[in-house]
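Here is this case:
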Amino acid sequence: MSTTTAIVLVIAVIAIAVAAYFYLQQRRTRTLHGRFGPEYERTVASVGDCRRADSELETLAKRVERYPIRELSPAEQERFAEAWLLCQGRFVDQPGDAVKEANDLVNEVMRERGYPVSAEFERNAADLSVDHPLVVEHYRIACDLAARQSRGQASTEELRKAMMHYRELFEDLLGVHVAHAEEARR
């Protein structure tokens, strides 16, 4: 084999390896973007680039895969749906208390499902983003509004919005719409 042929062969192998690397990186990014949806873009903005975001999200997904996450039984779904309806009914007279209770219910459902709820909000939100990427933003907004309420800085309208955001996440975690659970009991 001539030297020229060997050089051309080495260059071809390197070019194929580089092309394969970039192809796999793009496929990895597309897969993660598809899985995490809006949370993917949020992570990219937070960490600064796609490769670091990909790495962070893969690590997060592996961590959550170790959790004993499960679906709730119909009896558990009904019990939580009833608790939500009571909480929602309290909003008229005690909006601040109802928002706190809604947060507590979301955390309780998370625990029952197998998520290790911690005092660190960002960790809870990150864990939820793996399996609930389309509703985790509701959790972020609701918790922000609840924090404002605890400082006495939220209006009743903002508390109403917090309840609506908590409900979106709650129903997604529960696996049923609360209104449907109520109708099924009748």
Summary: Residues 3-65 form one domain. The first helix runs from residue 3 to 36. The two ends are 84 Å apart (CA to CA).
